[in-house]
Structures are given as C-alpha cells and as structure tokens.
Write a structure and sequence with these properties.
The protein is mostly helical. It has one domain. It is about 75% helix and about 5% strand. Helix 6 crosses helix 8. It starts with a strand and ends in a 5-residue tail after the last strand.
C-alpha cells in the first residue's frame, strides 16, 4: 500500500484564504492607527453580516438548479431543529463575538509575530480537542503534520516573538482567541452536516455581530469618522469581504468536506503568508531559516492530504 496526494478545489481555496488572512494582519495594524480596534472590527463585521444575510436570501430564492459540487456549500435543505438553533447561538457568540473581540484586542496589544505564533497552535489545539471529545480519530500522520508545521511556524515568527512584559496582556488575549477559534471549528462540524456553510457562517456572524456592536458603541461614537482617510475605508471593506466573508465560508466549507483536523493545519500557512507579504510589500529580508520554515510548513500541509492508495488487485 502506498500513499497518494489527494488535492481538491477546497485545498486551493484554503491557500487563497491563507493569503488573505496573512495580509489581514498588516491591514488591521494599519487601520488601528486611525480607528480604535473595537470600532474598526464592529464596522467590518456589520458589513460582512449584511453581505452574508443578503447571500442567504438570494440562495433561498434561487430557482435554477445548483451544480452538485457547490450545492452543499450554499443550499440548506434541512429544517432547523431546537438543537440547531442553540448551536447557531453559541457558535455565533464564541466564534464571532468572542474570537473577534479577543483577536482584535490581542493584535492591538502584542507583536504581530506573537499573535501569529499563538494562532499557529490551532492545528494541535483542534486535534487535541477533537480527539478528547471523540469527534475525530486523529491519525499518527496528522499528529506528525501538526508537529512539522509547528516547527516551521516557530522558525517564521518564533525568534521574533517576545512573550511577557508589555505584551503579556495581548498574548493572553490571543490565547483566548485561539481557544474560541478551535471551539468554533469543532462545533461547526455537526451542524454543517445538516446545513450549508453559507447559512451557518452568515447566521452565526450576524448573531456574534450584535453584542460586539453594542459593546463597541462608545468607541463608534468617539471615533471621528469624517477624519478617517479613504484608504482606511477601502481597507475596512476589503477586510470585511475577503477576510470575513470569503475566509470564513472557505474555512467552514473545508471543515464540512475535509474535516476539522485537515482544515486546521492550513492555519499554519497564515504566518508564512504574512511573512511573504511583508517581504514583497515591505521589502523585509528572507533569511535561510525562513526558507527552511517554508519547506516545513508546506510539508506539514502535504502530510495531511496524503491518503492510502491500495495496489491494483488488492
């Protein structure tokens, strides 16, 4: 028995998502220079929620047949049960309100390298929780993939990270964000077996946006929006449409089709994307250690996509 590399359209979409999320670190850091983190995040979540709810409405009204390959991503045939409603509620509060609250606050209070390194533990966190909850049997190859990619993430950002001191509060906030994201990823598996990623993502984001926006009211009022430059408005819309709308639906669609553990390993590519964007855009140097990191992170992703191939005649 040998192993073959099995890639799908979702793997390619996840790579695009990684590029978007990697660039989003720089986008948010730049935006926070003019707009408070809570105000900026509340605005982009509101934009993303409006787009998602409109898309759900359009998908429901669509009368022409949807190709089977994308039907499960956009179409929800099942009626909502009481448990579905509770799942949507807690997923919205944990995966959108909680995660975005702690993520934005954490990024604002710590180094980008610290934030990327902490979120680089996502695959291991998801694997441990999934195994402990009995949701998914994590195979030795998947543990190896998580370890190899984690080493790569450390080589990318670990040496630039400095925990404690002035960044301690931000680091702890990022740890809480990590737990929220892992819980959201695993919690979505059951409900997305019955409902589309579009519906689950859109409804949970709208649920999470409401308390987030309410809590951000003081910062929304205090912000002098007339003085905000056009660039920040463009970044806000792009971050909403790409990092939230595109990124979240690709993530959840991949969880539905590939599983939580397989999908989570792609989060290790985000620090790599952030590094490459900085190298191309900001002309930051690429050291030999970072080239090794690139190879390790990609190797970890490839390992998760290796599947047994039985010899002919077996």
């Amino acid at each position: 028995m040998t192993r073959a590399l099995r890639l799908s359209i979702f793997d390619l979409l996840l790579v695009l998502m990684v590029v978007v999320w990697g660039a989003n670190y720089s986008v948010m850091k730049r935006a926070f220079e003019e707009v408070p983190p809570l105000a900026f995040n509340a605005m982009r979540m509101a934009v993303a929620s409006a787009v998602f709810l409109a898309a759900i409405r359009i998908a429901r009204r669509r009368t022409t047949p949807i190709p089977p390959a994308i039907r499960r991503v956009f179409h929800t045939p099942e009626a909502l049960t009481r448990r579905d409603r509770w799942d949507l509620l807690w997923l919205g509060l944990v995966g959108h309100f909680g995660y975005q609250l702690f993520f934005a606050a954490g990024v604002a209070r710590t180094h980008a390298s610290n934030a990327a390194l902490i979120l680089g533990v996502t695959p291991v966190t998801v694997a441990v929780l999934s195994s402990a909850l009995g949701e998914d049997r994590v195979k030795p190859l998947q543990w190896l993939a998580a370890l190899v990619s984690a080493v790569g993430v450390y080589l990318v950002v670990g040496r630039g990270a400095s925990f404690g001191g002035t960044t301690l509060a931000g680091d702890l906030l990022m740890v809480v964000a990590l737990v929220c994201w892992a819980a959201y990823t695993l919690g979505g598996v059951r409900i997305m077996a019955r409902h589309s990623p579009l519906y689950v993502t859109g409804v949970t984001m709208a649920i999470g946006t409401v308390p987030y926006a309410i809590g951000a009211i003081p910062w929304l009022i205090a912000t002098r929006w007339a003085d905000v430059t056009a660039l920040i408005w463009v970044l806000l819309v792009l971050s909403a449409l790409l990092a939230l709308c595109f990124g979240y639906i690709v993530w959840n669609a991949a969880v539905q089709r590939l599983g939580a553990t397989h999908t989570a390993i792609y989060s290790n590519l985000v620090p790599l994307a952030a590094m490459l964007v900085a190298a191309l855009w900001l002309r930051e140097p690429m050291s030999p250690a970072k080239f090794v990191a690139v190879a390790l992170i990609i190797a970890g992703v490839v390992l998760t996509r290796l599947q047994p191939r039985m010899p002919v005649g077996s």
